[in-house]
Amino acid sequence: MGFQQGLSGLAAASKQLEVVGNNVANASTNGFKRSRSEFADMYGSSLYGVSNAQAGIGVRTAEVSQLFDQGNINSTGNNLDLAISGKGFFVLKSPSAASSQDAYSRNGAFQVDANGYLVNGDGYKLQGYAAQNGVIQYTATPVDLQFQTSLISPTATSNVDLGVNLNSSAMVISPTPTVNPTDTSTYNSATSVKVYDSLGNTHDLSFYFVKGTPTATGTDWTVNLYVDGTAVTSPAGPQTLSFDTNGVLTSGGVLSNIQYTATTPNGSTTPMTIATVDLSKSTQFNSSFGVNSLSADGNAPGTLTSTNINNQGIIEATYSNGKTVAIGQVALANFTNVQGLQSMGGNLWKDVASSTGGAKVGAPMSADLGEIQSQALEQSNVDLNSELVDMIVAQRFYQANAQSIKTEDTILQTLINLR
After folding, report:
1. pLDDT at 84
2. Crossing angle, helix 3-25 and helix 384-416, to 10 degrees?
């Protein structure tokens, strides 16, 4: 009798309805990947194999497989929401100290926890490449990505780069004056830059340029350095900048160990040293005085104010002191066979090495890895229209198998009733 076939069909139809129901239930789950039921027929076998005249004995569920096609990307406006466009998974570390295995996800809804770590809703920490002094360490092992949310310490200025153009048509001040910052007749041009002491207080480092008498080989200018209106203590006096007849600096462009006394707002004083003042990009052309390039390191204390993540997954933090630094780069993982990943729930998968060949971890947009879109989330890849059609098919599948059992029961009853 054919009860076996009908019963197996009912079990398969029930499984299909479970899969469709789970897909529908997760139609709004970020990063969710839909599943499908895959069935296989069954035959009874003997010592001699399956007979050509043998009817099958039913159906079995061969696999419930997940389909990792791309979901739509929805803009959210939240800086810490990340979506992967293309291949790859976020690499996450379990909050449990007992678990050392990485987890993988396409759900990029992250937040900053109390310790500054980027985590998902269940506390799993986002993995990436750390930065040292703003430089991403690509060759290192991915680590927990973390913001410094507490007050960052001030850093004293140690290097200043200044490139100016000194007007070759400027008048020579004769006799050579002693520079007085409050008397513009004692110098030709001036500019200044903000520098920081070890406590994060700002000071004005000023440069006063005086043109010398041109010669057959070029022109010497002198530069006097002042901090907050007081001449630096070393190097004492004017320093010489020598330009050739083409207006190119040939010597005197780098000043070392600039020493000054920093006076804080409360009146205390601290001796400070700027390691290098680089003026080597300066020129002397027939054009008005101007600053062509300027940079200085150092910073005041500050707190985290905003974050930005670009399409390569590089995370930059901006602090209240205006300092912007790279803190790391999001790492992505891909697999030879993503179907071999095992679902853990919570939009997480784990690597079953025998099926996937192991995780291939790298930076976004490298190898075959996709790019990162910030302020966005990948939506579920469930198509409700298709799922509702599949639900109707599974319902009819169930009804048809129930009817086959009913028919077999009618036939059996007929046999029993024979006299």
Report:
1. 97
2. 160
